[in-house]
Automatic annotation (TrEMBL):
InterPro entries: Phenazine_PhzF-like. The lineage of its organism: Bacteria, Bacillati, Actinomycetota, Actinomycetes, Micromonosporales. GO terms for molecular function: isomerase activity. It holds the Pfam family PhzC-PhzF. It comes from the Bacteria. This is Phenazine biosynthesis protein PhzF family. Signal peptide: none annotated.
Length: 296
């Protein structure tokens, strides 16, 4: 069944860095006759870590890995909104996206080096205390307790699905990590974590580099995880009074990526916006003049 849909898949490099790298993401117009098994099969067959299935009439986007459907996906949102801007043949678009029971604002703008997309991530739930058996998950990651940053500490953050944020002291420590992925998947399942976002802050203000390990959802290492960047931004706002950050990812996969995030304090908590640049690489996302005319 999925074979006919491969011709309709657009590959979008999401969260590129200076016109290169980014996370290859499959994007296609959703076919409501497809079951979820078929959607997962599309991801497997095209060879990306994620796929975004877009319903242009309802402004709904669903995200899948080979393992399951995701409540949300940050770099997938950036890929989907870039796809829609390109398909509609415009240079700027402000819209709304419905995903996982939530509706949020999006902006997409054509730039010289790709399509810049920003979206409202919403309120981040921060839990600065973690379980007492943290040593088990650190062991699965291959991180010694002494490698944890002295002025920071592991914490849990959730934009809808919790993940563990782990600060390490140095970039060499970050780059040398070789997690035991089956063990890490087990530990994340036990705690209900999407995965672990390991990072080190740069000496340059408001910059960091990071790696995201998410074997619990079938992604051993994510090229880029935009939602975790928003989580980190909220954490650093709460603990270090930083209101913006740029995070480099993807170096271990040979696909350098960059995600930006800003924070705002609200009466309900810390809200974040996430931004990244996307490049339409392959596929049929040609301008849809009929849809564009209806949106003027």
């Amino acid at each position: 069944m999925t074979g006919n849909h491969h011709r309709n898949v657009t590959i979008v490099d999401a969260c590129t860095h200076r016109g290169h790298g980014g996370s290859p993401t499959a994007v296609l117009i959703d076919d409501h006759t497809l079951g979820d098994d078929a959607r997962r099969a599309v991801v497997r067959d095209v060879g990306t870590s994620h796929a975004a299935f877009v319903d242009t009439e309802a402004d709904t986007v669903r995200f899948f890995t080979t393992h399951s459907e995701l409540t949300n996906c940050g770099h997938g949102t950036i890929a989907a909104q870039a796809f829609l801007l390109h398909r509609r043949g415009t240079t700027k678009q402000q819209g709304r996206q419905r995903t996982g029971g939530r509706t949020f604002d999006t902006t997409a703008i054509q730039r010289d080096d790709g399509i810049e997309v920003w979206f409202d991530q919403g309120i981040i739930d921060l839990q600065n205390t973690v379980s007492e058996d943290l040593d088990k998950i650190l062991s699965a990651l291959g991180i010694e307790p002494a490698a944890i940053a002295a002025d920071d500490g592991p914490s849990v953050a959730s934009p809808g699905t919790p993940r563990l944020l782990v600060p390490v002291k140095t970039a060499p420590t970050l780059h040398s990590l070789r997690p035991d992925l089956p063990r890490l998947a087990t530990e994340c399942h036990r705690r209900g974590y999407l995965g672990c976002f390991v990072y080190t802050r740069s000496p340059v203000r408001d910059r960091a580099i990071a790696r995201m390990f998410a074997p619990a959802i079938g992604v051993g290492e994510d090229v880029v995880n935009a939602n975790s960047t928003g989580c980190l931004a909220a954490h650093l706002y709460a603990t270090h009074a930083r209101n913006s950050i740029e995070v480099e990812q993807g170096h271990a996969a040979g696909r350098p990526s960059l995600v930006r995030a800003t924070t705002t304090a609200t009466t309900y908590g810390i809200s974040t916006r996430i931004g990244g640049t996307a490049i339409i690489r392959t596929g049929p996302a040609e301008p849809d003049t009929k849809k564009n005319a209806g949106r003027q």
